[in-house]
């Protein structure tokens, strides 16, 4: 479980200033009448319909329910004509009390943010966290509140004209009614650290590929290392990659003018204990190579470095919270392009661990860079745990859509911890089977392995067979593979995550780290 005291003691002095970027979050014992909008929460069991606040409001809500303009079901919002001393008053359906959770706190507050912006107001207050505090973990409630508010307040408007930027301005202030202990406010601080790292990833992934390449990612990693004395950066450039024998990674980058790199961020948070290694796929643009991606699939391939960005952000969180864990953030970076020098379908490359791989499809490139990174990390650092994140397969998007990442691996306990971290953080994973029957589906005929399945029609269980391929490059470590192909970049708006980059994996890894620190 999370050791709250250790984490709060670890937050830097800058964090204790409670700086919330564009949004100021305050805690008050009473509802703040200086805010533009008031949101009052109603459970389905609440029959007064806001009468304790105002008889006039209750009568309007009852009338709205009669004509089915509002219900107390979760997520329903009714903007009342009655405004009291506010510019706008609204009631929010919270559903049944027994079904309420920290994830629904995120969702409810996120919807308040987007609704307030939609009404062109800049601030609101609400009684929702006060209303749901009974029986809740106050610290987790605080974290969820910060996450719902700050994730929903995000927008990427860097390339818009100034007049259009003005139309997408974030909220300036939120006041949360709370009559409890300090754990809630301390949870807000932890949530802020996690969200700032998540939104940092969203910026990176939303940037175009003509900005974010391997050298740009190296620049970001250098900033992380320079910010925290507990973090060191190691960079392997093309010559070092060739010397180490990373033929699989180098083959993917053969058609690109941008140099390949392997970045290793090393965070020292414990005097004892082996490394935990997070590895992230860092394809800064994926054309598909000679197996070129078609229109409607190639346009958003700037996002194929989302795994590497999430890993870098997880190191930031660990350093900011001073997590008691020794952590590696490993990022293989390159670009999969079409050029006279690009690798062909049918080529055979030799990976770091000596295994040969036939290139059955140049668009199955993520596993080719990750396999070298996995084998190298295990050989050089002998980590106890390795978790890789990758926008790896379209098959995972088909299977799970946007709202969960696929997870599989070789250690039941590790998978359980990741599933638990996903449930609490809202950055969810869903376990895919890793049956023995799948384990020879990536075996080659003229090479040790093929980078696409050699069984059936070749596309069956695509997410699982990609994981099987990666497993061939892990020998001793407890290992899990997280496929964030769907969860990293949404094509729809959610309750607190907007269309575009989501920062998938940052909250998952952060909560995993917070719950699995070393005891010293």
Describe this structure in words.
By secondary structure, this protein is of the alpha/beta class. It has two domains: 4-186, Leucine Aminopeptidase, subunit E, domain 1 (3-Layer(aba) Sandwich); 207-395 and 456-514, 3-Layer(aba) Sandwich (Aminopeptidase). Helix content is 36%, strand content 19%. It has helices at residues 4-10, 55-66, 102-118, 128-131, 138-152, 162-167, 183-206, 214-227, 238-244, 247-253, 306-321, 366-381, 394-400, 412-425, 462-471, 506-514; strands at 24-28, 37-42, 77-79, 88-93, 123-126, 173-177, 231-236, 261-268, 275-280, 282-286, 326-336, 348-350, 356-358, 385-390, 405-409, 429-431, 449-450, 478-483, 489-490, 500-501. Strands 7, 8, 9, 10, 11, 14, 15, 16 and 18 form a nine-stranded mixed sheet that branches. A six-stranded mixed sheet has the order 1-6-5-2-4-3. Strand 10 (282-286), helix 11 (306-321) and strand 11 form a beta-alpha-beta unit. Helix 14 packs across helix 16 (506-514). The chain is elongated and about 80 Å long. 52% of the residues are buried. The model is unreliable at 1-19 (pLDDT under 50).
């Amino acid at each position: 479980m999370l050791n709250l005291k250790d984490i709060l003691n670890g937050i830097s002095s800058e964090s204790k200033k409670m700086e919330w970027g564009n949004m100021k979050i305050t805690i008050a014992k009473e509802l703040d009448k200086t805010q533009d909008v008031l949101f009052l929460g109603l459970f389905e069991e609440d029959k007064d319909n806001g009468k304790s606040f105002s008889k006039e409001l209750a009568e309007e809500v009852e009338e709205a329910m009669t004509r089915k303009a509002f219900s107390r079901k979760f997520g329903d919002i009714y903007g009342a004509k009655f405004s009291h001393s506010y510019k706008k008053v609204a009631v929010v359906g919270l559903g049944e009390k027994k079904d309420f959770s920290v994830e629904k706190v995120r969702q409810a507050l996120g919807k308040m943010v987007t609704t307030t912006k939609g009404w062109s107001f800049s601030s609101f207050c609400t009684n929702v966290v006060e209303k749901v505090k009974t029986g809740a973990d106050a610290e987790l409630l605080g974290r969820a509140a910060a996450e719902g508010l700050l994730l929903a307040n995000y927008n990427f408007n860097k390339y818009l004209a100034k007049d259009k930027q003005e139309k997408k301005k974030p909220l300036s202030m939120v006041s949360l009614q709370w009559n409890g202990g300090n754990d809630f406010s301390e949870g807000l601080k932890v949530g802020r650290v996690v969200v700032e790292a998540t939104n940092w990833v969203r910026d990176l992934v939303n940037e175009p590929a003509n900005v974010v390449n391997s050298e740009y990612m190296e620049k970001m990693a250098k900033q992380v290392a320079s910010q925290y004395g507990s973090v060191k950066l190691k960079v392997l450039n093309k010559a070092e990659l060739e010397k180490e024998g990373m033929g699989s990674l180098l083959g993917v980058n053969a058609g690109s003018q941008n140099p390949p790199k392997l970045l290793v961020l090393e965070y020292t948070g414990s005097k004892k204990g082996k490394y935990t290694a997070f590895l992230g796929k860092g394809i800064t643009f994926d054309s598909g190579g000679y197996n070129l991606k078609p229109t409607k699939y190639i346009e958003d391939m700037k996002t194929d470095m989302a795994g590497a960005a999430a890993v870098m952000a997880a190191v930031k969180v660990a350093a900011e919270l001073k997590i008691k864990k020794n952590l590696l953030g490993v990022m293989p970076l390159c670009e999969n392009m079409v050029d006279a020098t690009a690798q062909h379908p049918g080529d055979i490359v030799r990976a770091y661990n000596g295994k040969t791989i036939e290139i059955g499809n140049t668009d199955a490139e993520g596993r080719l860079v990750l396999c070298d990174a996995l084998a190298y990390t295990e050989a050089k650092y002998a980590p106890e745990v390795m978790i890789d994140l990758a926008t790896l397969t379209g098959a995972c998007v088909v299977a799970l859509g946007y709202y969960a990442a696929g997870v599989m691996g070789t250690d039941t306990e590790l998978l359980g911890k990741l599933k638990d971290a996903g449930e609490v953080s809202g950055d969810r994973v869903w376990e895919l089977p890793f049956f023995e029957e799948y384990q020879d589906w990536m075996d080659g005929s003229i090479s040790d392995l093929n980078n696409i399945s050699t069984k059936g029609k070749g596309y069956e269980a695509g997410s699982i067979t990609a994981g099987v391929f990666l497993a061939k490059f892990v020998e001793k470590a407890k290992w899990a593979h997280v496929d964030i192909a769907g969860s990293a970049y949404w094509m729809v708006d959610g309750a607190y995550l907007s269309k575009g980059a989501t920062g998938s994996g940052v909250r998952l890894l952060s909560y995993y780290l917070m719950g699995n620190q070393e005891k010293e």
